[in-house]
């Protein structure tokens, strides 16, 4: 196995020493390319007060290839499917090696703030979202409370 | 008797009588200069043999004289009348000897006075004889009576009146008939039989003017040899060119003398251009034999001083001002002339001595037939026989020599006998290590070579060499019958003694001897040439420790300067001093000369091997020993081993040579050259292969009793490399360059490889021991089991800029070579062409190398001016290729983009903190920064990784930062301004400025890092500049925690070298240790078994050098399989170099007899390169 590229080490260090507000990312003890990530639901979004767990994996070709990210916490979101897969351009076609773990996670956070039902991954959710936005948002809030409840400090 | 003769002459030569009468007076005055009988009483000196050769005799009958019984009685009576005391027996003897000659009486008397009158065996008579030299005294007698047959025979030895001081006698070896061409008109017809003389037209022409360096004549020699009329002492004509070629080199010498007699001139006045015929009698004089007995190495040694003393008149005729080369040249030409002369005289070596002797006896007892002089040939019987003889000789000669050689050097080491060599186990008391079986055999062999039979395990085989063996290079000749002009007129009886039938000549060195040349006893020492990694060092120590001091010398007086080789071995440059006061004999010390890089290794090995508390070693390096002489010869327990380097030896030698001129210096008189060592071992002995280098000369001058050469590669480039080793070992007769050339170089040059190699094998067989890793012992096991070795040639394409640069340089080089060939002055442009080639090779490695030197190229080291000189043209080209190429900008686009970038990065400061968003490195190394059109900056490496990745996946290329489409061909880079290097400016980026080899190397190393961590890696190159570049690139490519880079080249001090190697050898699984090794500094001797991967960045001219380098890793101690990768650029000069390597591997390279020859050979290579 090739040794860890300098860049990953650097990114990891930065994530730990200078974390993004509302986001944590910790490398796994056994595999430094595997991160456990939490993202707080953005304010004034249906996901507010929720803490979402994600897993992030840096493939061998990273940073040429985008990291693989998946929600572990159930979430009601038109761009995130039941399996936690995320529909986000920077993780797919718009990936650029100039992007980093930090920017990817920020993009995900932004996705939570502004769902895009026109480019859906979970079709039923998206449909719901277009037909009855308020209802959908309520359901999202409900799910957040149900599944992503902030642990009491 | 003379009356009878006179009458006879009148009878037969009436027509000439008047003129001959006229010349008679003159002749008798002058005869001293021509002829006189030699009355040498030494019977050995007289001989008769019937060798049919008389080309010179066309129109004259041989001299046949009838002497009746009465005459004999009369002769004896006359003798006894004059000297009443003369015993009858002596009188009879003298009668037999002299009565047949005209003036025999006076000859007999002078002989008597010289030899019987209390001066027996004294000097030769010098009293002038009164030989009648009138035109002819012969009688044509077609059927001589038996009684006169013997009288017809000629005496063999005679004197010259105008003897040079050193010539005591001369003896006829044959006669030639030569057609001369008149260069002046004569007033009167030349007299038949008038004495002529041959002279060099000018004595002061230097040899180099007459010959080129290969000994071929440059000028026509016919103009240099003139015929003089003795009577008037003026020039009358010239001889033909072929004869002149023979005569010219020999005329100046006293070793050969000629007598010329006019035999035909048409009886007319000569006009210019008329031809006339003369008989040229050739004689060997005593000088030629003296020389061989005095010093059979005279051609080799720079003994000008001694020689001048010995023979006041230098027989070369050129005196002291000669350089050594001139002298060698002169000798060579003389030798060649002698060969030709022998050929012309039909003087052939005798193949079967017994047969010759029998034939000789038969001739003596029978009546040889009269030679019919009208017949061009001799009598039919003899003719056939002679022709048969000739045919045999010629036929057998080629194979003969080889066979002789082989019998002489009895196959001491056929591989079978090698296997059967007994093993000698060194005593545990002195030797700590365990030897392998083959090493024990080697020890036996080495001890035998030093004639320490007591210490070696013996077997039944006796190693005595045949004492009566004739030196194979010598040939036996029979003295021919004296058929000379003079001899035919002064008949004489002969005394036959078998001892004197033959003389011996070494036609290769031009030496002559009357005694049978017996080969000298064997030298002590030899060449241990086991393949690398078979433990030559250990072998050497096993010998040293088994036999640490000279038992002979120690038994006697310890400090007595007793040398077995004696004055014969006096090093040339100190000859004068060391003859008087001999060097003290360090009988307990072995001197080991090693390359600097191995000094420590040898020291360590000694400590490991030595088990005796009394023995120790001393490193003689860097002035740590004040007086070696005192240490070695005046202390109680001198070191067993003194280790030193080639550099030290050369250094002291240089000082020493100078020291001889000025005052004696303490440091000089007490150093390496102040003592005579018991044993000298030179490690990596091929270091002295070029005998013209100071190192080589210095090593040759070291004095020691036993001499050993250790080398894994006795031949580096050419067969001649061996010559230096042979010379160092003082291996006779081969250390004489003449022998070597004749038997090795010349056949080799004539593509007669088999012969050359056979001879080399024959020479080396007894003194050389070579085992290879492939050899099997008596049980069929490999001598050494080594892990496999895998050499892969990785062929790479040029990178784009390399390609352009290469084509440009190739074009230039080809033009240069072609014009050189066309004009025939390729040799003159030699250095230029070498520079061309060097540049081509450098481009293959890295364009940045252009302008630097190849440290291994002997031919170029002197021309560094040419090499480093960067032409403006080339300079521009390097820039052009690194600029415009690989960029697809149009000029307008480029300007626009550059403008944009200049706006974005207005000054240097703005460039200092650029970050590469891909690897997050900051700041970007500006030398490796690339800029996109949109103005974003990346590391070159990162961006190209991205481009490659995207292309590989068929994805569009976008700027990672702004997602603008980008184009690999539309990038920019920075360049330091020529004017002020601190300032940077933009330039179009070309992906091609990288060397493809470096890219490939990085890839390979990365792969290795990924697959097996902690592997040590060795990277070889012959360009130290390349090592610098590699160091930079590698450091850049691999962070500190991934790889550690070491560099080992000639710039390191001894201490640094040791440090680097020690550090490198330590295994570290977290890092890849990379050793950048300069071929020159580390190609030999080092032990790098800790590494199992090697990369050869560039091919070398000599394949054996590459093998050597690989064997640093692949040797005893290596545990894993060795992988070697050689980087070769496709379709480049490197591929052709591979081909040349192949060629060298199969045939080796011919000797560099001289510089010109070697260059010529390289020119051939060059032509091969540009085919």
UniProtKB/TrEMBL annotation, chain A:
Keyword annotations from UniProtKB, A to Z: ATP-binding, Nucleotide-binding, Transferase, Ubl conjugation pathway
Recorded superkingdom: Eukaryota
Family: Belongs to the ubiquitin-conjugating enzyme family.
Top EC class, one word: transferase
UniProt cross-references to InterPro entries, sorted A to Z: UBC, UBQ-conjugating_AS, UBQ-conjugating_enzyme/RWD
Residues annotated as the enzyme's active site: 87
Domain UBC core: 3-149
The keyword Lipid biosynthesis belongs to this UniProt entry's keyword annotation: no
Protein name: E2 ubiquitin-conjugating enzyme
From TrEMBL, chain B:
Transmembrane segment boundaries: none
Keywords linked to the UniProt accession: ATP-binding, DNA damage, DNA repair, Helicase, Hydrolase, Metal-binding, Nucleotide-binding, Nucleus, Zinc, Zinc-finger
Main subcellular location: nucleus
Subcellular location: Nucleus
CDD domains (UniProt xref): DEXDc_SHPRH-like (cd18008), RING-HC_RAD5 (cd23131), SF2_C_SNF (cd18793)
Chain residue ranges for the region called Disordered: 124-152, 304-326
SMART domains the record matches: DEXDc, HELICc, HIRAN, RING
Domain Helicase ATP-binding: 517-732
Any coiled-coil regions, as ranges: none
Comp. bias regions, Polar residues: 126-148
Organism superkingdom: Eukaryota
Ranges of biased composition (kind: Basic and acidic residues): 305-315
Residues annotated as domain Helicase C-terminal: 997-1167
PROSITE patterns referenced in this protein's UniProt entry, alphabetically: HELICASE_ATP_BIND_1, HELICASE_CTER, ZF_RING_1, ZF_RING_2
InterPro entries: Helicase_ATP-bd, Helicase_C-like, HIRAN, P-loop_NTPase, SNF2-like_sf, SNF2/RAD54-like_C, SNF2_N, SNF2_RAD54_helicase_TF
Stretches assigned to the RING-type domain: 916-963
Family named by the database record: Belongs to the SNF2/RAD54 helicase family.
Protein name, entry field: DNA repair protein RAD5
Organism of origin: Saccharomyces uvarum (Yeast)
Organism lineage string: Eukaryota, Fungi, Dikarya, Ascomycota, Saccharomycotina
